[in-house]
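From the methods appendix. Each design record in this collection lists the tokenized structure first, followed by the designed amino acid sequence. Records were kept in a plain field format so they could be parsed without special tools. The example shown here is representative of the layout used throughout.

RECORD:
FOLD TOKENS (263 positions):
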């Protein structure tokens, strides 16, 4: 295998992407599919799953709330039925959570953010790890954190807290699973162009009294490269992390953010 060949994940990988029907998750699912991987996704949004199935019929899917253990168990029933095993888990599920001062955040909003952004990663990892230990295809877990997992994020405390937490999970699992050959890494996207970022900008504008245009300009101004990133940027890094070229890459938190200097 040449160095260039090693940069591409091998064909036939069995991949599960959580929250994989739209946005970053769908970009990752499609990218793996294009390399010849067998891909299964789960998502809470049935409409998005149906749309993905129409666009990419070879990608199978399950409707599931990633924060509910019973739903996760059903996803793995589907994974066993469609893939027969697992080589890669992309723990991508997450929500934005509330945008508000800490004293204005409803405890139910906090709990929901923790349930989706942190608990789901635990629920999927605990079911995936036994399967990954059986893999002989450079098995790995990719955890989707955020630039808010390395910086403080005013008005977004629940989100930032969970994104820091999954970094701790990644570091711990990398140590725990390394002797079995399972690698664990995290990606920290910055401001990613798309509908979700538009919603985040609108919420921040409402909380701060700025216009959406001003908030968008502020986000871009905080990056060294003065630009947002795309879902394809994140998908490309995910493919690299699961390629032979990354066989000694583990316990790493890699930012894909045009270098956000502060939040």
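DESIGN:
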């Amino acid at each position: 295998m040449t160095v260039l060949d090693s940069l591409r994940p091998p064909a036939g990988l069995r991949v599960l992407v959580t929250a994989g029907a739209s946005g970053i998750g769908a970009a990752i699912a499609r990218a793996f599919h294009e390399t010849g991987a067998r891909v299964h996704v789960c998502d809470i949004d049935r409409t998005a799953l149906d749309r993905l199935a129409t666009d990419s019929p070879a990608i199978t899917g399950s409707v599931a709330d990633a924060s509910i253990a019973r739903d996760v168990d059903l996803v793995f029933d589907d994974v066993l039925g469609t893939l027969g095993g697992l080589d890669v888990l992309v723990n991508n599920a997450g929500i934005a959570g509330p945008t508000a001062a800490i004293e204005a955040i409803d405890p139910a909003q906090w709990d929901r953010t923790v349930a989706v952004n942190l608990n789901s990663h635990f629920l999927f990892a605990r079911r995936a790890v036994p399967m990954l230990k059986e893999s002989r295809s450079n098995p790995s877990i990719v955890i989707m954190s955020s630039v808010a997992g390395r910086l403080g994020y005013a008005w977004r405390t629940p989100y930032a807290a969970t994104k820091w937490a999954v970094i701790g999970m990644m570091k711990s699992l990398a140590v725990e699973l390394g002797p079995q050959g399972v690698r664990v890494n995290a990606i920290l996207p910055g401001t990613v162009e798309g509908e979700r970022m538009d919603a985040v900008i609108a919420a921040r504008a409402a909380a701060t009294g700025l216009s959406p245009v001003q908030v968008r300009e502020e986000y871009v101004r905080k990056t060294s490269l003065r630009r947002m990133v795309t879902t394809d940027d994140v998908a490309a890094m995910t493919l690299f992390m699961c390629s032979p070229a990354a066989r000694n890459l583990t316990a790493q938190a890699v930012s894909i953010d045009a270098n956000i200097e502060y939040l």
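APPENDIX NOTE: DSSP finds nine helices and seven strands in the chain.
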